[in-house]
Amino acid sequence: MANVASNSVTICPQTRFDTEIFNFTDIILKKMQGLHVPKDENEMFETLSMVCSGMFDFSEFIQFTDSNKTIDDDAMLVLYLVLPEIYMPDLTKVKWLGQELDFDTFIHTYTSEGLCYTFNMLPYDEVFRDVDDYITKNTKNTETVRQWSLDGGYPTDNYTDSYPRRTFLSGIQGGLLIDAMYSNTSHLDYLCDQSLQGYKVALHHPCEIPNMDKHFRLPLDQAVFVSVKPVMITISEDLLHYKPEDRKCYLGHEKYLHFYKHYTQENCLRECLANYTIQECGCVGFNMPTTSQTVLCGLGSIGCMRESKMRYLENETDAEFGKGRCNCWPSCTSLSYDVETSQIGWDWHKAFEVFDRAGLKGDLPDERQSHFSRLNVYYKDLQFLSSERNELYGYVDFFSNVGGLMGLFIGISVTSCVEILYFLTLRLVCNIRKYGRRVWSGEPELIDSKNE
Hints:
Layout lengths: L7 E6 L10 H9 L6 H10 L21 E2 L7 H4 L10 E4 L2 E3 L5 E5 L2 E6 L4 H4 L48 E9 L14 E6 L11 E3 L3 E14 L8 H4 L17 H17 L14 E2 L4 H15 L17 E12 L2 H10 L12 E10 L6 E4 L5 H16 L3 H11 L1 H10 L8 H8 L1
Parallel strand pairs: 10-13, 10-14
Antiparallel strand pairs: 1-6, 1-8, 2-11, 3-4, 3-7, 5-6, 7-13, 8-9, 10-12
Helix pairs in contact: 6-7, 10-11
Family: Belongs to the amiloride-sensitive sodium channel (TC 1.A.6) family.
Membrane topology: Multi-pass membrane protein
Subcellular location: Membrane
């Protein structure tokens, strides 16, 4: 099954701003104390606050209704300017299958957590129908893509440079290692995300934008090991002629998505939420798929977005039964991941002391102002088992069960059915012809009385 399994890894730093460029905490404190905030700082604050999940904690001090309800389409691109670096050229190492890669292998991805780093995701022009309708600077080269698909997997040729990348090894040596991700103490922000520091990490399908509501944590100064076990569901040929409503899943060509090239349940739900948000608020979140005619929601619309998402989720609870707004059934061929994590404290300071004694410290950062984290993602086993969607009761099963029940309750069998047919047809016709209509049953008493 290694021919079809692949996954992407997205890392979202909880430190979202370089404090030398934009200090979120200082502006919040000014607003709480009623101090004046310059216009340019306030405009940047209202834009960048959209990536802070803890903004509702300050609703007592900040009147969201007085803020701009929409923002410019390109406003969120400022995240590229204020995002702190999480890697250092001389320290941070990225390895795949034991071979070192450039950190540029990660592409920038807009999520609900702001600007994140994604490894092994399809390029945006392979995910979206119109890349211009999505905020992106992703210029990933698509020449290495070799017609991978979830239904068909990879080509039969043994390409080791296929994209999305796949591994042929289980265990740590066959996975992704990100060593010494860097965080500066001066960049830590204890107000933007409810005082939780470190990184959020999500594993997802290569043709999906990550859903950061499904994540695990990579803390500061910790090493986290992630064991991945793919869970794949395929479909039998017997179900291909069924309607989607009957089999409760969609084939890749059966449901068209306006924004996405590939149908998955996550893409369908994301598109449906975007359409619902437009309907309720007149705008969409910066991380949602959109068109060039749709504006992005500003800080003044954060309450509307929150309420509309709750109403949308309530409506979608009936989707499993075909009553949802968009009927986002699962894909008939779907891929998800079971994850087991373990972590240990990483005393990297000891390594710095050794480098210092050996005279190798060089341009290493001040350890009093630094935090480092390590992430290792790998497949637990070389092979995995897939499940297949199949008929619960086919025609053969139905008639077998009916025959079995009839035989159980009334002792009927195939021979009994032939006998019944014989007595109702051939035997009846022969008796009438031989003895007449009055002796149609062929009873001996009736035959004797007739002869007399």
